[in-house]
Amino acid sequence: MTGPASLEVSHSNHNGVLHIKTRGALNRPENLHVWEQVQSISNEHQAKRVLIECDPTSSHISMEHCFELIEKIPLISRCLACKIALFEHQISGEMHELLKFVETAVTDRGAHFKLFQELEEARHWLKNRPATSFSEIPQLDSDES
Predict the structure, then answer these.
(1) Phi, psi (degrees; rounded to nearest 5) at 52
(2) Could you report the per-residue pLDDT of 28-69, keeping only the tens digit for each?
(3) What is the pLDDT of residues 74-108, one digit of tens each?
(4) Fewer beta carbons below 10 Å: N end or C end of the chain?
């Protein structure tokens, strides 16, 4: 799949892990659709373990993309009762802080989600920790204030 500003999304399924790769700039608002594509691919494959790999040439992720991740990842996790790992080759400085913010916000919303800097570590986490059943995933109660 391709989209604005040379953004590409590809995927493969290996040993029960749906591996989704994004290539292109994640700091441009016109590329926010990438997370809708990730959600669509995950739903299409009914994945229980999803590995999202961000482009190693992406030097920064925008705040808009962070909030889009915070919205989409818990939906994918709850709808599919799946675990999601985000792998970024080079996380440092402000980008690391933004992605740690995303990790905290997403897990606070009940998703089984973790940020990784090593691909094999992400795969190990996905494969060796069982995916949680839907009934065990915390549900958001709209009556809570």
Answers:
(1) -105, 120
(2) 776 778 878 888 898 899 889 999 888 766 657 778 888 888
(3) 988 888 899 999 888 777 777 788 888 999 999 99
(4) C
Instruction: Decide if 22 contacts 36 (C-beta within 8 A).
Output: no
Under 8 Å between Cβ of 113 and 129? no
Can you tell me whether residue 133 is helix, strand or coil?
coil
Gap between the Cα atoms of 57 and 67, Å rounded: 21
Q: How far apart are alpha carbons 117 and 129 in whole angstroms?
A: 18
Residue position matching structure tokens 């799949």: 1
The token pair at 103 is: 């990790």
Tokens representing 126 are 């996905």
The tokens for 18 are 């749906």
Which residues, other chains included, contact 13 with Cβ-Cβ below 8 Å and sequence gap of 6+?
19, 45, 47
- Residue 129: what pLDDT? 58
